[in-house]
Amino acid sequence: FFSPVICCTMSSLYYNTYGTAAAAPQGHRGGALTSSLLAGAAAGFVVYLLAAGSQPSTQLHSTAVRPAATVTSPTVPAMGRLLRVPAAHDVHMRTAAPMPLAAHQVDSRFDAAPLSQGSNWSPMLLLSGVTAVAALATFIWRATQHGMQPQAIALAPYSSEDMERRRRLAAAEAAYRNGGQVAIRRPVVGGNWKCNPASMQELDALLANINACDTSKCDVYVCPSPLHVAYCCDRIRNGALITPQNCNFTGLGAYTGEMAVEQMKAMGISQVLIGHSERRGEFGIFPMDSNETLATKLKYILDAGMKCVFCIGEPKAIRERGLDAVLAEMDVQLRQIYHLLDPARVVIAYEPVWAIGTGLTASPEDAQATHAGIRELIAKRASPAVAQAIRIQYGGSANAENAPALSAMPDIDGFLVGGASLKPEFADIVSA
């Protein structure tokens, strides 16, 4: 009885303290839930062993005429229990209190000691109660904290080794500039509305905000929710591009819930966004968009004559291991598309997963170091010309306050904006 109680309460306690707090910014809620269940199951199994060990072993009383065979039980070798296996025809089992058996009763031939003898359930009752109360208290605390806005916390800067790498990247960038090999990259700012807004009146206000943006010195695109794409197509007046948030990888057909680029082209749409962390599994969708799937999507988009915003990014655990670990992850996410990187038709949006909607921020210098490292990867894997011409946006909680400092960095070519794109300050980000 107590094993499933401990299992459930420990799972709830583990998930509420670790899973939602630590895993959510990293995009691994599914893994946190699995580990929570495993932790609870382990706790339940331990309680089961304690319960089994506290119960008295079954008493066997025999008055065998001939010696019985003695064998070691294969099921409990560690306990060292011995089972007596007497011959059934010449062994009489006696009970603690012999009495005649009724017609419907069956002689069990075994006399077990009462459950209450030799067992102690008090520790398990206490453990069950403590874990249940702790799980409930933690759940209530998490529920009260859910509506609070995260505080802006700056991560520790990169290490001294990373600083040296940053200086080397800056020197390489200066060499390119002095040699006249740097392409002039036009800034690009995108607004990802995700699953917003709720009403058409709010949607009209967002469209008015987009139309108020100055697009003379900056390319602008906006990503409405799928239900709003068609409505928005005819209501943009300043050249901003309507960019759907996703597409399938196989075209038209019996694919429920999907969008094909052929349909987008027929609506006058020329660009689509793929690879956002929330499509890569950050909020628990399954199957998630893998690197292989995204490479297939990108080829499908380009073959159809469309443009693409391709998102990449790393979770907090990788960021905390330093710049080399971050760039190794970026290399993994880009490895299958290096040969598809056409600067005229592909924009890379670097969005550190740990900075999306969490309040965590990267300094302009750290963001620049990562962008320069991504550009160096592209120079090695594709070509220096592609690396210098392709635009790389920053997507880590950009807003009107930090946009000017970020946009001053030489390898940051604009922003992919989330929550701030739903506010009037989006026009200020475009102007930055």
UniProtKB/TrEMBL annotation:
GO terms for biological process: gluconeogenesis; glyceraldehyde-3-phosphate biosynthetic process; glycerol catabolic process; glycolytic process. GO terms for cellular component: cytosol. GO terms for molecular function: triose-phosphate isomerase activity. Pathway: Carbohydrate biosynthesis. The keyword Isomerase applies. It comes from the Eukaryota. Keywords: Isomerase. SUPFAM superfamilies: Triosephosphate isomerase (TIM). It holds the Pfam family TIM. InterPro entries: Aldolase_TIM, TIM_sf, Triosephosphate_isomerase, Triosephosphate_isomerase_AS. NCBIfam families: tim. Belongs to the triosephosphate isomerase family. Homodimer. This is Triosephosphate isomerase. It comes from Eutreptiella gymnastica.
